[in-house]
Amino acid sequence: DQQVKQNSPSLSVQEGRISILNCDYTNSMFDYFLWYKKYPAEGPTFLISISSIKDKNEDGRFTVFLNKSAKHLSLHIVPSQPGDSAVYFCAASAAGNQFYFGTGTSLTVIP
Amino acid sequence: DTGVSQDPRHKITKRGQNVTFRCDPISEHNRLYWYRQTLGQGPEFLTYFQNEAQLEKSRLLSDRFSAERPKGSFSTLEIQRTEQGDSAMYLCASSLSLGRAEAFFGQGTRLTVV
Fold first, then answer.
1. By the CB < 8 Å criterion, does B50 face chain A?
2. Do B56 and A100 touch (CB under 8 A)?
3. Which among B3, B22, B30, B63 is most buried, taking Cβ atoms within 10 Å?
4. How many alpha carbons lie under 13 Å from residue A59 in its C-beta half-sphere?
């Protein structure tokens, strides 16, 4: 049973525009959410996280929004750059235990 | 480099052989995770340790898989009698054991069973 879902397998945006990646989850016990970026043949790289006590966390060009009532989170990248092209995974955990990952969204930023 | 280190990066083995992978976590991290990733999927949880104690194993983990973390430092993941379905990227990650702490991943070990 997939507890974390990323329903868009791919996304293309123009350089300089906003990229919005979405993630839904089903387990209401999740209290910590993360986004990872992954290049081919490498391990995932941590990007940004958010605790369930917040609804927004910002780090430079990256902002994560959390809507607990909808069990939905999103990652905004502004402005998008060609180097952002990668696969993005969202992940969630409950009470500091294992992380559950979505299936990923492949982002292509077109120069 | 003080990141998570995995060895080997690539392993090709014949079906039925045993393989062992090693992971060296970030030195101050007491949690260590093993994940497996196949094409088009997200990382799938296998098991995790806090120090030397194995706290959780995935129900998907067959008896052919075993992991250890002696002395709470590096960890090994062994797969016995490999099958073609074991072909995947095996990822190791480590984190602090605070209530909420991000996990940092290694480069992974790509296993191909022929």
1. no
2. no
3. B30
4. 10
**Residue matched to tokens 């990141």:** B3
B44-75 b/e (C-beta count within 10 Å ≥ 16 → b): bbbbbbbeeeeeeebeebeeebebebeeeebb
Contacts for B79 with CB less than 8 Å, ≥ 6 apart: B18, B19, B20, B64, B65, B86, B111
A88 vs B: CB within 8 A: no
Q: What percent of chain A has pLDDT over 70?
A: 100
Is B42–A31 a contact, with Cβ atoms under 8 angstroms apart? Answer: no
Pairing state between β A56-59 and A62-67? antiparallel
Instruction: Describe chain B by its helix, strand, coil percentages, rounded to 5.
Output: 5, 50, 45
Mutate to test the interface with A, among B58, B100, B107, B109 (most CBs of A within 10 A): B100
Average pLDDT, chain B: 93
Across the A:B interface, residue pairs with CB atoms under 8 Å apart total 66
Residue of A nearest to B33 (CA): A98
Report residue B16 as tokens: 């039925």
pLDDT in tens, B5-55: 999 999 999 999 999 999 999 998 999 999 999 988 999 999 999 999 999
The string of pLDDT tens digits covering residues A22-65 is: 999 999 999 999 999 999 888 999 999 999 999 999 999 999 99
